Amino acid sequence: MSLVIGSAGISSASHSKVRDGGTAVYALRPGTAFNFLGPFNTVANCEVDQYGASGGSWRNLYYATGDGGVDYKLSLASAPRYKDGNTEVTVTLNHSYKWTTGTPVTTKDVRFFFQILANQPLCYAFAGLLPKDVTSIAYTSTYSFTLHLNHSYNPRWFTENQLQWITPIPAQAWDRTCATCPVGNKATTPAGAKTVTTFLMDQFRTSSSYSTNPLWKVVDGPWVISSYNPVTKETTFARNTHYT
Fold this sequence. Notes:
With 244 residues, the protein is an alpha+beta fold. It is built from five helices and ten strands. It has helices at residues 48-54, 107-117, 155-161, 171-174, 190-205; strands at 2-6, 23-27, 63-64, 70-71, 81-83, 88-92, 134-138, 144-149, 223-228, 235-239. The chain has a four-stranded mixed sheet with strand order 2-1-10-9, with no helix packed on it. Strands 5-6-8-7 form a four-stranded antiparallel sheet, with no helix packed on it. The chain has a two-stranded antiparallel ribbon with strand order 3-4. The longest helix is centred in the C-terminal third of the chain and has 16 residues, at 190-205. The chain is globular. The protein starts with a strand and ends in a 5-residue tail after the last strand.
């Protein structure tokens, strides 16, 4: 199974039954093009189509349903637990999710997300919200972490509008300051995290290497990029055979 993303105007026959294999075609809206890969979209590339495509490679913490809720069976974590007047929330990751390298998705990847987030805000974030509404984070185990919030929040709202945007990213492959630099613990200091962020954002913007850059082959979602045309922006995602 593969996924092809192209410009608006592409059409394909609809089928009433689910089919195994083949190619799914995803046409973008007029005036948009897939030109930014990765979970940290810039303001210039803040389009739902962009995120919808790359979101299939790097999964959000919680899987959103069509009615705005959460499908916990398809999520990377179980239902969050709120306490202390909804000023504290604990999240436990499912042990079954793995990166294409075979290593599990852990709180180290969540920590790495927040380290990058400190230097590269999410393009759809509102002032005062994630990560500003989190005063501290305790990574209590390999699979559990606790967020301490700046005040009480409605649990349903916070889960669906804040926790849902947290995207574990592969520290094992991305925590580096250059393409040939060794990986590991570079983002643990503010200065190091800034350098790592600069490197990653430069890589995200270099669309000519989308299909060959080894960074983009480390995913935990159902799709991994296999080809990209920098001129037409047509993109093909292949099936991630390691997907849980």
